[in-house]
Amino acid sequence: MKKYHLRFSMGSMSDWRMGNLLLALMKKFGIRVHPSVASCHWSAGNDFTVFIAGIEEDLIAIMGGLSLAAPGIAGSTIQNLEEFGKLVFGIPLDEAALSAIQDLPPGVPILTCGFNKKDVTISITNAALAVARIIGRDDPAV
Predict the structure, then answer these.
(1) Domain-wise residue ranges, the chain
(2) pTM for this one?
(3) Do residues 14 and 66 lie in contact, with contact meaning Cβ atoms separated by under 8 Å?
(4) Contact indicator for 44, 73 with CB cutoff of 8 Å
(5) Residue 30, phi-psi category: left (phi > 0), alpha (psi -120 to 50), beta (remainder)
(6) What gap in Å lies between CA 133 and CA 10, rounded to an integer?
(7) pLDDT tens-digit map of 49-65
(8) How far apart, in whole angstroms, are the C-alpha atoms of residue 114 and residue 21?
């Protein structure tokens, strides 16, 4: 059994407030989370891809706002490494981030939930429920 169910990464420390909501829900569902902060913009190039390549968990959730490129880069890295058992779940905090996830080229599948324009906490809650269902398929304790 792996130490963690989920690798959860935020693009910057400013995402912690919303990240804490997701972490609280994961704890409520009994999901073991390995949280981290990793920006593909601040650590462009090999640093971010090395970070993604080193992730052991099969499910990676990446949260952020504005130009959320990290899910797409993570998906491309996983594709290039041929680690097809890993899934990337993008959690946008605003419409620009949602667009960055939705407008990826063919061959870079990134999962996401609907985005609630009026209350982003609803989007985060729905993302947490979706992640819990994915993990619960392999772990009946969740």
Answers:
(1) 6-136
(2) 0.91
(3) no
(4) no
(5) left
(6) 21
(7) 889 999 999 999 999 98
(8) 17
Strand order in the sheet with 87-92: 33-37, 6-10, 59-64, 87-92
Distance, CA of 115 to chain centre: 14
3-state secondary structure of 95: helix
Distance CA 64, CA 98 (A): 9
* Cβ atoms 34, 6 nearer than 8 A: yes
Dist CA 134 CA 142 (whole Å): 10
The token pair at 42 is 């601040």
Backbone angles phi, psi at 95, to 5 degrees: -65, -35
The dotted CATH code for 6-136 is 3.40.50.1970
* Predicted confidence (pLDDT) per residue in 100-136, tens digit: 999 898 888 999 998 999 999 999 999 999 999 999 9
C-alpha count within 13 angstroms, C-beta hemisphere, residue 43 = 14
CB 68 within 8 A of CB 18: no
Alpha helices in 9-119 (DSSP H): 16-28, 46-53, 70-81, 95-102
User: What is the amino acid identity at position 79?
Assistant: Q
